[in-house]
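Before surveying the methods themselves, let us examine one representative protein, pairing a chain with its fold in token form.
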Amino acid sequence: MPERQHSLEAASLMLYLACMRIMFPLLCILLTAGCAGRSIGNSHARDVILELPQAALQKEDVEVVKVSQISGSEAVAETQLKTAFRLEKAKNKWVVREVRIGHGEWEKVNNFAAALETVRTMETRSMLDQIAAGIRKYGEDHGKLPDFKDYVALSDILSPKYMTPLIRLDSWRKPLAAVRQDANTILLRSAGADGIFDTPDDIRLAVTR
């Protein structure tokens, strides 16, 4: 069972990278520290993507459409990823039952979706941790937490010195929020999977000085 769950989470991470956009580009952040100062081409970008753990990808599964160099150590690769859907006819209606990425195993759609939400939640928590680290660094330099009217203003204060890259959206591509609870506490918030604040799936992180 643990091996099965690991397989689901690995496949879900890969699907998250693809954002389920089979006909649209896949945006991958490639950390190319070993190539600092050198540009990265389509072929090299594909080789890096193929190194993803448990990805079950082969060269014919990934087509790199465009690579944009952000800096000496980061690039964005826009790709098309081979994906297959297993369909089933139920009550005279075709529905998707399973998904397969590249040469990976078939995964049940419901299990895949649940694991994907777990991955998105984990990534959003990681984002909040990065923002919190930036707030604390600001506090160390200025002797107080930043003053702001909303999260956009807060992120402008932190970026780029205290927060790189700039983070404005959670893993569901919804705006993050921040409120000043008191002089020494800032509450960071994501609305979670449902996109609605003040519901049980909200993700919160209190940052204190």
Q: What stands out?
A: The first helix runs from residue 2 to 18. Residues 2-105 form one domain. The first strand starts at residue 26 and ends at 31.
